[in-house]
Structures are given as structure tokens and as C-alpha cells.
Specification:
Blueprint (H helix, E strand, L loop, with lengths): L1 E4 L9 H17 L2 E6 L9 H14 L5 E4 L4 H13 L3 E4 L3 H13 L15 H9 L5 E4 L5 E6 L3 E6 L7 E3 L7 H11 L4 E5 L3 H13 L8 E5 L19 H6 L4 H10 L11 H4 L17 H14 L4
Parallel strand pairs: 1-2, 2-3, 9-10
Antiparallel strand pairs: 4-5, 5-8, 6-7
Helix pairs in contact: 1-9, 6-7, 9-11
The structure holds glutamic acid.
Length: about 325
């Protein structure tokens, strides 16, 4: 078994990321699998080295380790080669429409009561039209031609899942400056690195449909890949946690005097029927069962986590 935790170093890790990292770690360590820490750092505008360093430090503080570290920015040549292969098979096609043109098309579709799907106009462009546009200084970006199928998989947490690809716009995989996007790099890596289990947030369910199609287009065998999507955390009122995420970064919690074991113990209990108790990752191994995680979004209640922290501190020797 081979797993990966793949954060983007565009900010500090928060409790939502920590939950995914912990689930990957527990699954890998319980099954004797191999765990990669993969930095999704191809977005050069937003990725920062200090965030990458902070991610490693925060994960270690939580009590997590990994068997291998990979930086996507070291693999740009490999992504370029994979893009060439997709171009050759006709699955990656050049587009020239500007953001304004696309926004205008979407607006028209909306007015006509149609879903705002990309119309694949670029596929109708002749080689001659393309080379003339390029001679005039236009540089294409590249979209992946999705299959006209419904992708299905048995999710380890959510159960049977299906994504209808005809309801999704062909995704851009390569920007005009040649830089590859996450949807693409992630699949190339999962394939090359022999990943067997992808554990990530429920916000990636649609991506999974797209990525399985891409996986097959790159010659992968999708049956070798299992998925588990964890429902996203909500705040104590049931709203999205994202509004409060700044105060829930691991750095901030550490500064506030929260012990790592209070965070990991609390996160491991969320969405399960177990009462959460403080616990370092290795102490949580015996009770860990991904299949027992509920389909609905668990509430993240900082007060409850503080309660665990108090319990943990009380039990420590006075010195
Ligand atoms: N960098 C992506 C994220 O942080 C990774 C998602 C994945 O696990 O594929 O959401």
C-alpha cells in the first residue's frame, strides 16, 4: 500500500489539513504501507518555501512522520512529457479564448437556462487558424478532453460514488506559460509513484471523476487506485469552517498552548461514534477504522478540543 499526503505550500496547515494528514498516516502505519509527503508546489505565484518548511515542522509537532518527501517543482520535465503524450493522443487540446470571452459565453448560457459548460469551440479550430493566431503572438493553454462517460468508484468512506463527466467543463491542465495545474500533476504522480490509496477531503469528489479519466488516458489502471473522501469539517453552528480557519492553524493552536495530542485525539474521534480522548498518533492506531467514519460533516468544536486539552494537562506530572 502506498499513500500520500499532498498539501500545497500556499499557507499554514490548519485542523482540516491535519485531519487528512492524520488519516493518511494512521491508514499507512496500520497497514504497513509507505507514506509520501508530497508538496503540491507547481503554483509558483502562491507557493512559498517558508510554508513548505512550516508544513514539515507542524506535521512533526503533531507526531507524524513520512517515508519519502517529493516536491512537484522537481518533476516539471516529467509533467511536460506526460502533456506531450496526451497531445499526441488528441486528449490535450490548445485553447485561445480569454477569460473575458469565456465569462461572456457562460453569461449567455446562464441566460438561456443552460449550465455554464465549456462548449469545446477550440476543438473546431483548424491547425491553420491556430498557427496564424500564434504568429500574431497568441499563446495557447491546454484543456483535457473528458470522456463522455460516468466515472464510478466505491469510496471507502462515502460508499458508491459517480461523477458524470459530460456535466463538467474540460479542465485546463497546462497554462499558457507552460506550467502544469494540480489536477494534472497529481494524477501523473499518483501513477508514477504507484499510489494505491488516496485519502483526501470531500471537496475533491468531482476531481476524482476527472482524475480517474485522466489516469486512464495516461495508461493507468484505475482499479489499482482506491479512494476515501472525508466529509469536510463544519464549525460548531454547522457553517463552513473556512471562515475561522486562520485561528485554527496548527501554529496558532500551538501558540495558544494546545498540546498536539489534544488535536490528534480530537480529530481522530470526529465523525465516529467514539468519544474523543487525547492521544498521540501512535496511541490512536488500535482504534483507527476508516470504514467507521460517518458520511455527514462533523462539527469541529474548539471548546471540546480545549476540554480534552485540560484533561491532558491535568494528567501530566506537576513538574
Ligand atoms: N494539494 C491538494 C490539496 O491540498 C491535494 C489534494 C489531493 O490529495 O489530491 O487539496
Amino acid at each position: 500500500m502506498k499513500l500520500r499526503f499532498a498539501p500545497s505550500p500556499t499557507g499554514h496547515l490548519h485542523v482540516g489539513n491535519a485531519r487528512i494528514a492524520l488519516a493518511n498516516w494512521l491508514f499507512a502505519r496500520k497497514s504497513g504501507g509507505h507514506l509520501l509527503l508530497r508538496l503540491d508546489d507547481t503554483d509558483t505565484q502562491r507557493s512559498r518555501q517558508d510554508y513548505a518548511e512550516a508544513i514539515e515542522e507542524d506535521l512533526r509537532w503533531l507526531g507524524l512522520d513520512w517515508d519519502e518527501l517529493v516536491r512537484q517543482s522537481d518533476r516539471l520535465e516529467r509533467y511536460a512529457a506526460a502533456a506531450e503524450a496526451l497531445k499526441a493522443s488528441g486528449r490535450l487540446y490548445p485553447c485561445l479564448e480569454s477569460e473575458e470571452e469565456l465569462a461572456y459565453k457562460r453569461e449567455q448560457q446562464r441566460r438561456a437556462g443552460r449550465p455554464p459548460l465549456y462548449d469545446r469551440a477550440a476543438l473546431k479550430m483548424t491547425p491553420d487558424q491556430l498557427s496564424r493566431a500564434m504568429a500574431n503572438g497568441k499563446v495557447p493553454y491546454w484543456r483535457f478532453k473528458l470522456s463522455n462517460t460516468t466515472v464510478e468508484w466505491q469510496d471507502h468512506v462515502l460508499g458508491r460514488r459517480a461523477v458524470k463527466l459530460s456535466a463538467i467543463s474540460d479542465p485546463v491542465l497546462v497554462r499558457a506559460d507552460g506550467s502544469p495545474l494540480y489536477t494534472f500533476t497529481s494524477v501523473v504522480d499518483d501513477l508514477d509513484m504507484g499510489i494505491t490509496h488516496v485519502i483526501r477531503g470531500e471537496d475533491h469528489v468531482t476531481n476524482t471523476g476527472i482524475q480517474l479519466d485522466l489516469f486512464a488516458a495516461l495508461g493507468g489502471d484505475a482499479r489499482k487506485l482506491a479512494f476515501a473522501h472525508l466529509p469536510l469539517l463544519t464549525d460548531a453552528d454547522g457553517g463552513p469552517l473556512s471562515k475561522r480557519i486562520g485561528s485554527l492553524s496548527l501554529r496558532q493552536l500551538r501558540r495558544d498552548g494546545i498540546e498536539a495530542a489534544s488535536i490528534t485525539g480530537y480529530l481522530a474521534g470526529l465523525g465516529t461514534s467514539h468519544d474523543p480522548a487525547p492521544g498521540a498518533p501512535r496511541d490512536l492506531l488500535p482504534g483507527f477504522d476508516l470504514g467507521a467514519v460517518s458520511h455527514s460533516s462533523p462539527r469541529f468544536d474548539p471548546r471540546q478540543m480545549m476540554g480534552l486539552n485540560r484533561k491532558l494537562l491535568h494528567a501530566l506530572p506537576f513538574a
